[in-house]
Write a structure and sequence with these properties.
Blueprint lengths: L1 H17 L1 H11 L14 E3 L2 E4 L4 E4 L4 E3 L9 H9 L7 E7 L5 E9 L12 E8 L4 E7 L3 E9 L7 H13 L12 H7 L6 H9 L7 H15 L6 H24 L1 H8 L4 H12 L4 E6 L4 H16 L4 E4 L7 H7 L13 H13 L2 E4 L8 H15 L5 E6 L15 H9 L4 E4 L11 E5 L15 E5 L11 E7 L10 E8 H7 L7 E6 L4 E7 L1 E8 L5 E9 L1
Parallel strand pairs: 10-13, 10-14, 11-12, 11-13, 14-16
Antiparallel strand pairs: 1-2, 2-3, 4-5, 5-6, 6-9, 7-8, 8-9, 15-16, 17-20, 18-19, 18-21, 21-22
Length: about 575
């Protein structure tokens, strides 16, 4: 097994250094049989509609509704088998097998064959032809060849149809897209992969797609991968890998700020004995009385920021705050949330995280009016955000607004249009000075759960951006016990035997919401757990849930109603 992975690694490096044309020859030398696709199809990689196989140096484009299967799950059908046997297409040549999940429904087979040839043989002009159009069995077969290598694309309709029109069109489209190379411009990148699976709520599956992607490990790629992984895995902050990624990312910053805090200890001492969560909330609540707008930011992969934001809702409501403005909402979703009183999958991406979803749910329960204010399509996103927030005040002069933003948008100063952030534009346009609290800038492994202090303490430190009123160090440990007391339950089912020792994703949905919104609902909690003894043990809040368990290949293993009293 180790030698196979070493070969795959060497292939990737050679591709980066030698290019595709030389790669084909090198692969033939490294892998025992260049003619046996069976040995190489384990390296198939799908990114949305794109397909790659680096050892074979082939690629293609499939439709988005194709579900791919292991080749040992191929449905055997006599009419297909006889045609494939006629063209000498065997299991060892089968590269891809799948089925569509939407109309037209069919089975898809892609075979790859390489003729035995001498080194002096060169590819000829590529030709594509229809070999079979069997209307009796609703089967079509195309071939694409360059004289040395050939793709065979077979499509067999599921069910009986009067004509082959749709499968002829799809088959032609697929075979035309198949390439005997992988062009550099078409190679996958982490952001494209993430966007391909952005709407999938199986975070274990998406993590697996990022981990298995054939992408070089240069610093730029690794930074992108880190951001995407931490964002995905923030849906379960107790998962060991999430903790490792955050610890690695924050270790150097923590050391830097630990030293700074030690130097500033005298300035913080008078308040440091009062830095418990309740005391910080009380201080912010008191300060908010004198402001019409309070702005709090978050790092998008830190659910503890949302936990703290949730704890501010009640005291702010008591102080007359009427609106909760959320950057993370998609356009037009705020009115739907105000009507529904909770978020669903289409409300936004970050709002799908359970603690963010709970933040919105609590705000609605307290009577806040939810407002979305972001706009990615505008010329100047920062200025448009400020304009949209201004409209809240223009429509209701008595409104008091809690603005929940991302990272640097709450900075109150900027030297030019290009460096101005939302808060700076908002001050200019409204003449209102917001109370700005930054949870992102400073990290430290101090024992305090929270530490709250004025930004001016760090005015003499070059690397700290002090264009906010206050800094908050947030070391809250997010726990689903924030929702209610947790109960340990055991999920045991014979189907879990097939994933013994493997990790699975467990999504617990509110039963009523799931039966109404199905896959558009947001899980109350999401956990990645290992199956041991054909069972998993997990802590969950009280309530009635619909449980969905999936594996890293995105296979549904279990769907079940769960009542926790």
């Amino acid at each position: 097994m180790r030698s196979i992975f070493m070969k795959a690694y060497v292939i990737m490096i050679l591709k980066q250094t030698l290019g595709n044309s030389i790669l084909v020859l090198v692969v033939c030398t490294l892998i025992l049989s260049c003619n046996t696709v069976k040995k190489n199809r384990k390296f198939n990689y799908f990114s949305g509609t794109e397909f790659y196989n680096y050892p074979l140096n082939v690629s293609g484009h499939f439709f988005g509704d194709v579900k791919y299967y292991e080749t040992n799950e191929v449905d055997q059908m006599d009419e297909v088998s006889s045609v494939l046997a006629f063209y000498k297409l065997r299991d060892k040549d089968l590269l891809v097998y799948g089925k569509t999940t939407e109309s037209p429904l069919y089975q898809l087979y892609v075979f790859f064959k390489k003729k035995k040839s001498k080194l002096k043989d060169k590819p000829s002009q590529v030709t594509t032809k229809l070999l079979v159009d069997d209307t009796s069995n609703n089967l079509v077969l195309y071939e694409k060849s360059n004289g040395i290598q050939s793709f065979f694309v077979a499509i067999k309709s599921i069910g009986k149809h009067k004509s082959n029109k749709s499968i002829l069109q799809d088959g032609k489209s697929i075979v035309d897209s198949m390439e005997f190379s992988i062009h550099e411009k078409n190679t996958p990148n982490y952001m494209d992969i993430f966007n391909s699976y952005k709407n999938d709520d199986n975070y274990l599956f998406v993590m697996n797609k990022l981990d298995s992607a054939p992408i070089s490990k240069d610093p730029k790629n690794e930074w992108t991968k880190f951001q995407l992984l931490t964002t995905i895995l923030s849906f379960d902050t107790e998962y060991y890998r999430y903790k490792e990624l955050i610890k690695k990312f924050e270790s150097k910053r923590s050391i830097f700020f630990n030293d700074l805090l030690r130097d500033k200890k005298n300035s913080l001492l008078k308040r440091e004995d009062n830095q418990k969560k309740e005391a910080v909330i009380s201080m912010i609540a008191e300060a908010s009385k004198n402001y019409k707008v309070l702005m709090l930011n978050e790092m998008h992969w830190k659910p503890e920021h949302r936990v703290f934001a949730t704890s501010l809702l009640k005291p702010l409501k008591e102080n007359g705050y009427t609106h909760l403005a959320i950057e993370a909402l998609d356009k037009g979703q705020d009115s739907l949330i105000n009507s529904r009183k909770f978020a669903i999958k289409t409300s936004g991406y970050y709002t799908r995280e359970p603690f963010f979803s709970n933040f919105i749910r609590e705000a609605c329960a307290l009577g806040f009016k939810i407002v979305g204010y972001d706009d990615f399509e505008s010329i100047n996103r920062e200025e448009t955000q400020a304009e949209n927030l201004k409209h809240i005040i223009d429509r209701d002069s008595s409104a008091k607004v809690f603005v929940y933003a991302g990272i640097d948008h709450i900075l109150e100063k900027g030297d030019s249009i290009s460096t101005k952030r939302m808060a700076a534009f908002f001050k200019e346009k409204t003449g209102i000075d917001p109370l700005t609290i930054d949870q992102v800038e400073i990290v430290s492994d101090i024992p305090n759960e929270l530490l709250f202090f004025e930004s001016k303490i760090f005015l003499d430190v070059e690397k700290v951006n002090c264009n906010v009123d206050y800094f908050l160090i947030n070391n809250i440990k997010p726990s689903f016990s924030e929702f209610s007391n947790l109960t340990e339950i055991t999920i045991s089912d014979f189907v879990l035997k097939e994933v013994e020792g493997q990790e699975v994703l467990m999504n617990f949905y509110d039963a009523k919401e799931y039966y109404k919104y199905s896959s558009r609902s947001i899980p109350i909690i999401s956990r990645i757990k290992k199956v041991v003894g054909s069972k998993v043990i997990v802590d969950v809040p009280k309530g009635n849930f619909f449980l969905v368990i999936k594996n890293k290949e995105n296979k549904e293993l279990l769907l079940k109603d769960i009542g926790v009293n």
